[in-house]
Design a protein that fits this description.
The chain is an alpha+beta fold. The protein has helices at about 10-20, 25-35, 45-60, 80-105; strands spanning about 25, 60-70, 75-80. The longest helix is centred in the last third of the chain and has 26 residues, at about 80-105. The protein is globular.
Length: about 110
C-alpha cells in the first residue's frame, strides 16, 4: 500500500469484499479496482492483498478457482460467497457507524 493512505485494521477485508461484490476478479484486478474506485488514493500491495485473500477464503467469505486473465495468464479468480455477502453487509454497517462517530469527533468545537 502506498504511504498516501494507511488502512485501518480490518478495512482491507471490507474493501476486498465490496470489490468482489461487483464481480469476480483475480488478485491484480482487485488491487487495480480498489485503486480506481478510490481515485488512485488506495494502493494495495501484494504483501497485504494476498494474505487478506487467503484469510477471507479460510473464513468462507470468498471462493477461488483458477482461470485465464484477460492478459492470457493463469490466475486465481476470487468471488464472493453467500457468507461473504452477509459479512459485507455487517462490515458495511459497522464502517458507517465508525465513520459517523469519527465525523462527530472531527466536527467538535
Amino acid at each position: 500500500m502506498d504511504s498516501r493512505a494507511e488502512l485501518l485494521q480490518g478495512t482491507l477485508d471490507l474493501l476486498i469484499l465490496k470489490t468482489l461484490a461487483l464481480g469476480p476478479l483475480h488478485g491484480w484486478g482487485i488491487s487495480k479496482r480498489i485503486r480506481q474506485l478510490s481515485s488512485e488514493v488506495l494502493q494495495i500491495g501484494q504483501g497485504s492483498l494476498y494474505p487478506a485473500l487467503y484469510r477471507l477464503e479460510d473464513r468462507g467469505w470468498v471462493d477461488a478457482e483458477w482461470g485465464i486473465s484477460p492478459e492470457g495468464r493463469k490466475a486465481k479468480f476470487y468471488r464472493l460467497t453467500a457468507d461473504g455477502r452477509r459479512q459485507l453487509g455487517s462490515e458495511t454497517e459497522s464502517w458507517r457507524l465508525f465513520s459517523l462517530a469519527v465525523n462527530h469527533v472531527l466536527r467538535a468545537t
